[in-house]
């Protein structure tokens, strides 16, 4: 076994800084003494680190705690709404979305651009992504918003540590080094760049949203992102389960019809080719989702039959997931969130017929809290998570940026104070 040696002072501070910020994030309103009790650090160490976090606008002091009984009241600490934000980008099959999310979960900016990305060369799509990313960064700068990192959601298999997209069938991509390509096109990206599967990021965003609503009891569910493709983010005991390589949750490629239509993945009869957004629109004879919803509201038979058929096929595939994993809840996201009123009954009926435990523990089918925005918000949150888990690195960047700004202003003042060449 190789001895890695003792931790240096910087390593210890980095670890302790993350420990303190994590304690504040998980217990808003906690005092310095409370943080010390939770972390095991001394009060002096906690006080020094809290001051450092406050200076970097990661933590806010909110006055004295409300408490009964004797003893000195501590100052309440919480994440700062004026702190760094995460910038999320979602590369959809037929759209690009950006979203800026703050430390306390508030959305500061959100835009969606409808554009067909399928079968376009990756370079062309990423040029559009870089353009949208640049616009989002410019808007953030104009609003004096600090961006602490960038997250990108992609509908495909992603090698998360490297940011490489292994395959994205509905985009026609294979082995695309997305992280490297974006850094080349946007060389001044702030903070870390995180790339992840859109369904997984959507599931984590949904989990966070449920926790903010105090629905912590819902800590195990399958979040189904129904778009042109179909992805599933599986949350078990409050933790995302994405498989050994991070490739789990590809619900859209469950086989539901042996001799069905050919899928972009190369197989036949995949769920998304029969119950995905495009398949439903084609069967419903609707041009887009808005038209489809209008037809459904009017009770149009062809549209209703198309959605009910998709619900049954979706229920058939999900019953296998529930029988295998014993997940109590299905959350419908993406386009499926819009179609929930018409999808839920046939889907639930199929689950009732096929899930062995349903007579004793019926499976709940519910609409996503975030709907179609879940994946892009999850991408933004994933970028912000890099700040929360390693605030010391962010603070170092923040300090360097402040010093550069100060030096730049000082040089301009100094340069402007002398005589002009014409004098």
Automatic annotation (TrEMBL):
GO terms for molecular function: DNA-binding transcription factor activity; kinase activity. Residues 17-67 form the HTH marR-type domain. It holds the Pfam family ROK. It comes from the Bacteria. Gene3D superfamilies: 3.30.420.40, Winged helix-like DNA-binding domain superfamily/Winged helix DNA-binding domain. InterPro entries: ATPase_NBD, HTH_MarR-typ, ROK, WH-like_DNA-bd_sf, WH_DNA-bd_sf. Keywords: Kinase, Transferase. Belongs to the ROK (NagC/XylR) family. This is Transcriptional regulator/sugar kinase.
